[in-house]
Each structure stands twice: as C-alpha cells, then as structure tokens.
Amino acid sequence: MSDFKRLHVKALVEANWEAPDWQPLEKTKEGEWLLERHSMTERLKACCRTLTVEVLGLHDVEKGVLSDSERDLLGDQACLVREVVLSGDDVPWLCARTLVPMSTLTEQEQDIAELGAVPLGQRVFNQANARRDAIEVAHLMFDGQVLLARRSRLWVNDKPMLVSELFLPHAPIYQEEG
C-alpha cells in the first residue's frame, strides 16, 4: 500500500485545484458527486453493502508545510494530516487527505484525531451545524486515465478542516447508471 499512498496522496497534495464551473457541472452525474455538499460517506454507503476505511497515515505538519491556498482556507497554523482509503465492498473507491488545524482539535472535536476506521463524514455530519464550502475540483492523470478529485472545506461547530478526495477508477462516480 506504500506505492498507493505515495502516488495517490502525493497527487492530492500536488493537484491544480480550480473553482468548478457550477452551472454545466451541476447537470452531469460527475457534477452531482463533485459538488456534493453533504456527507460523501453517506453517498458512498448508498452504493455498497459495506464501506470500510483504511488509515494510510496520521501525522502532524507544521504550518510552513502548508501551501498558500491551504493557509488561505484554514489559517496559518500546524495541522493534523489524516490519509485514508474508503472502499465499497472491498474495492478502493476514494483516497482522501484531510488537514485538521490544531485549533479545530479542541473541545468536542478533539476526538477527530482518534477516528481510526470511522469515516470522517460520519463523525462530522452527525453535527447539526456541519457544512461544506470552498469546493474546488481537479483532473489527475493515472495510467492514461483521467481521475476526478475535489477539495472542500468542512466546518463543524465553526471549526474548519480541508478535505481532498481522489475518486479512484472503480468509484461509483464513473459507473453507468443502472
């Protein structure tokens, strides 16, 4: 899994994130996934019998490691980085990298650092005031195939996190409606 992590997580870090062209994108199946404002966890769960989370990494980064755009969205502070793969019925569907500012990991949200195999969306969207904004998209090339990715800021109790998600080749976003 180290090659997987090296390639996919690195791609999320280096992606060229852009604001989506909302109007045409909203009318496509891919757009419904990329522009999802609620829980991606729940959306993925609806497409399989079992959704599992494999934690690839959990570590702290100093604020100087963050890109300018990450600092613009989160503030200029150290973060916890959580890297995971979500699989539907044992098929990898989504590689995600979450930046959680240390100031977010206080009070009720301190448990976010200890989620383990619990999906972040399951934890965040259980809060009535959870919301998503600042959605950006990217197209990443892997083995001659363009894969879709998105980055968005999640808020829980007015505390931010930045989630980058790469939709892997067998994810439901690419499947024909049936």
From TrEMBL:
Residues engaged in binding substrate: 40, 82, 120, 165
One of the Pfam families matching this protein, by short name: Chor_lyase
Presence of the UniProt keyword S-adenosyl-L-methionine in the record: no
GO terms for cellular component: cytosol
Compartments (UniProt record): Cytoplasm
GO terms, molecular function: chorismate lyase activity
Enzyme Commission code(s) on record: 4.1.3.40
GO biological process: pyruvate biosynthetic process; ubiquinone biosynthetic process
Superkingdom of the source species: Bacteria
InterPro entries given in the database record: Chorismate--pyruvate_lyase, Chorismate_lyase_/UTRA_dom_sf
Function in brief: Removes the pyruvyl group from chorismate, with concomitant aromatization of the ring, to provide 4-hydroxybenzoate (4HB) for the ubiquinone pathway.
Descriptive protein name: Probable chorismate pyruvate-lyase
Organism, scientific name: Enterovibrio norvegicus FF-454
Lineage, broadest ranks: Bacteria, Pseudomonadati, Pseudomonadota, Gammaproteobacteria, Vibrionales
Gene: ubiC
